[in-house]
Specification:
single chain; 408 residues; alpha/beta; Rossmann fold; Four Helix Bundle (Hemerythrin (Met), subunit A); 2 domains; five-stranded parallel beta sheet; five-stranded antiparallel beta sheet; 14 helices; 17% strand; binds 5'-O-(N-(L-cysteinyl)-sulfamoyl)adenosine; binds zinc ion
Length: 408
């Protein structure tokens, strides 16, 4: 499907400011911060929205995290191939469509379009491949057939299930033990108690047609894809195996990323991703911000209320991508003050050298995308009027644009 238009990103290298260091990020599978510094090209997959409601600040925080990763990789001199999906057919979307009397496909298109507009306003780098589940049915069917040939699929009534223990390394992504998996699974779309399953953790690959639900006529029969196999199929097709980073919010570690990785590994005999990177959860009013709970602070509402998208971006940048945090109105107020201070500082020609601050920003971002440390370096620079380099403001303006995506 159509992606969104990308921001112009200055190349610091072309401006004579050199390249950044190798990038490190936290890999949930390894349980540590690791260097992810491939040769020449980096391949990234980030799990996209289920488009039944508008983009909230939790979504925005997650997509910003992977935008920062891409900016650090680009500054390193890498080309980035980026794929993101849209779960444009799934239970929560169909339930919302039914509850509101809307056509499910129209609801998906409306919310996907709003998401594109929000991402554009926030200057989030778009994926080269922005791919819906509906347009990927053939890819899913091919992948399920590979799993059938590997002997990893069985029927429950007319639905197809993946035998998670066909993957000897099941559990590699989350590192959870079975008890913990069994607790989380039903909370995140799993059906451990369905009669006829061989193991409670086995997951749905293909759901046979149900009355009033959309379905597609395929070699697997008439039906629709399960959730995890959607991302496995899209990522494998558009990025290949053993791509560099599989990303998303920490609510996707288990079961979603665990299951997608196992399905892909059993089908291809190759690792799915090399690293699994997860953003923390943004909360509001004491709970995780979520479409199902309805406790939302929407990007589009903040924009409509007149908040500068760059202040919204700065509000998110003030929190490290891996921490869980709670949105309050102070976040945007503080960001607006900071933005005004920075805008004033770059126009002054008396501030000290920009290149030293650029190095601080680069070091912070290469160190597990430590945006709060980068912000602190810029704050210190903006507060310092001890005199110096007249180029300073221009260097900082380019550095903020390229590395943090903040256009002053
Ligand atoms: N379509 C699936 C992924 S394939 C999905 O999880 N969609 S979503 O709309 O629920 O979430 C979209 C992205 O935002 C996911 O990466 C999810 O992990 C992330 N996300 C959802 N809620 C929050 C939150 N409160 N804070 C941070 N990230 C969140
Ligand atoms: Zn996904």
């Amino acid at each position: 499907m159509r992606s969104w238009s990308g921001p112009e990103i200055p190349s610091l290298g072309e401006l004579g400011l050199g390249n950044g260091p190798a990038v490190t990020v936290h890999d949930s599978s390894a349980g540590t911060v690791r260097t992810v510094d491939p040769e020449g090209q980096a391949r990234l997959y980030v799990c996209g929205i289920t488009p039944y409601d508008a983009t909230h600040m939790g979504h925005a925080a997650t997509y910003l995290a992977f935008d920062l990763l891409q900016r650090a990789w680009r500054d390193r001199g890498l080309d980035v191939t980026y794929t993101q999906n849209v779960t444009d057919v799934d239970d929560p979307l169909l339930e919302r469509a039914l509850a509101t009397g809307m056509d499910w496909a129209e609801l998906a298109e409306r919310e996907t379009e709003l998401f594109r507009q929000d991402m554009t306003a926030l200057r989030i780098i778009p994926p080269a491949h922005y791919v819906g589940a509906v347009e990927s049915i053939d890819l899913v069917v091919d992948l399920v057939e590979k799993l059938q040939r590997a002997g990893a699929v069985y029927l429950v009534d007319d639905d197809l299930y993946f035998d998670v223990h066909a993957d000897a390394n099941f559990g590699l992504v989350s590192g959870l033990d079975e008890d913990a998996m069994l607790t989380i699974f039903p909370e995140r779309g799993g059906d451990p108690d369905r009669p006829g399953k061989k193991h409670p953790l086995d997951c749905l690959l293909w759901q046979a047609e149900r009355p009033d639900d959309p379905s597609w006529e395929t070699r697997l029969g008439s039906g629709r894809p399960g959730w995890h196999v959607e991302c496995a199929a899209i990522a494998l097709h558009h990025l290949g195996t053993a791509f560099d980073v599989q990303g998303g919010g920490s609510d996707l570690v288990f079961p979603h990323h665990e299951m997608s990785a196992s399905e892909a590994t059993v089908a291809t005999h190759q690792p799915f991703a090399r690293a699994y990177v997860h953003a923390g959860m943004v909360g509001y009013e004491g709970e995780k911000m979520s479409k199902s709970k309805g406790n939302l602070v929407l990007v589009s509402r903040l924009r409509a209320d007149g908040h500068d998208p760059m202040a919204i971006r700065l509000a998110l940048l003030a929190h490290h991508y891996r921490t869980d945090w709670e949105w309050t109105h102070d976040d945007i107020t503080t960001a607006e003050v900071r933005l005004a201070r920075w805008r004033d500082a770059v126009t002054r020609t008396i501030a000290p050298s920009g290149e030293a601050v650029l190095e601080q920003i680069r070091t912070a971002m290469a160190n597990d995308l430590d945006a709060p440390a980068a912000l602190a370096a810029v704050d210190a620079w903006a507060a310092d009027d001890s005199g110096g380099d007249p180029q300073s403001g221009r260097t900082i303006r380019s550095a903020l644009d390229a590395l943090l995506g903040v256009a002053l």
